[in-house]
Amino acid sequence: MSESGPDLRLSLPLIALFKGVVYADQGNENWQRLLDGQAAIRDHVAVLGLELIVDEAEGYAFLRQRPEQEEEHALPRLMARRQLSYPVSLLLALLRKKLAEHDAGGGDLRLVLSREDIADLLRLFLPDSANEAKLMDRVGMDINKAVEMGFLRKLRGQDDQYEVRRILKAYVDAQWLAEFDQRLGEYAAHGAAE
Predict the structure, then answer these.
(1) What mean pLDDT is predicted for residues 15-36?
(2) Taking a C-beta distance cutoff of 8 angstroms, is the pair 17, 41 a contact?
(3) In whole angstroms, what is the distance from residue 91 CA to residue 83 CA?
(4) Can you say whether the dihedral through the CA atoms of 147, 152, 158, 160 is positive or negative?
(5) For a tag on the chain, would you pick the N or C end, based on fewer CB atoms within 10 A?
(6) Which InterPro entries match (predicted)?
(7) Residue 184: which pLDDT band, with cuts at 50, 70 and 90?
């Protein structure tokens, strides 16, 4: 920091990172500042027990708690862990699988789904219900949670259309996805039991 004030080249991307995920497509200068200052940002957040994750190909960056090493003193958690409900974790897993299928098919980089498309993904794994309005309300709450967490983004001017954010790939990794079919069986059994 200089006498005249903070170094905005680092301060602005750091503040954006502490608020959440920074995307390349957000149309601001933070992405380029983040790329230019990666080494300094990594050093800065490391003293807090955090690590900078940047995926230039997918266009996102975020901070996460650095895994504890045996020789280190454990620092208090700065990044909160969120306990997800069964329906929200199921939704995220199904969206991640859909994103993998979409990527394998090539074409458009963005995966956009309607509320009805998302409900269809979940329908098999939720308890049978004759009340379609109740099902859509429940799906709507789960979608809103996924939007709040940054995994879905509601498209402006398009009712009930959502973009699946690519950051989901960092949270639901390929190894977990490989075990997904086994988990789907468990989820289907859980859904039938509710």
Answers:
(1) 87
(2) yes
(3) 14
(4) negative
(5) N
(6) JetB
(7) low
Rounded distance, CA 53 to CA 78, Å?
A: 16
128-166, pLDDT tens digit by residue? 666 778 878 888 999 999 998 889 999 988 878 999 998
Report the C-alpha gap between 169 and 146 in whole angstroms: 14
What was the pLDDT predicted at 187?
A: 62
Q: Are 152 and 146 in contact (CB under 8 A)?
A: yes
Q: DSSP of 49-98, one letter per residue?
A: TEEEEEETTTTEEEEEEPPPPTTSPPPPP-SPP-PPPHHHHHHHHHHHHH
**Helix, coil or strand: residue 192:** helix
First to last CA, the chain: 56
Of residues 161, 139, 163, 138, the one with CA closest to residue 150? 163
Go through the domains of the chain in sequence order and give each one's CATH number. Answer: 8-65 (1.10.10), 86-193 (1.10.10.580)
- Alpha-carbon torsion angle 154, 183, 80, 111, nearest 10: -20
- Nearest CA-CA partner of 13 in 165, 32, 151, 39: 32
Burial class (CB in 10 A: 0-12, 13-18, 19+), 126: buried
User: In this predicted model, what pLDDT tens digit does every residue of 107-120 receive, in sequence order?
Assistant: 778 899 999 999 98
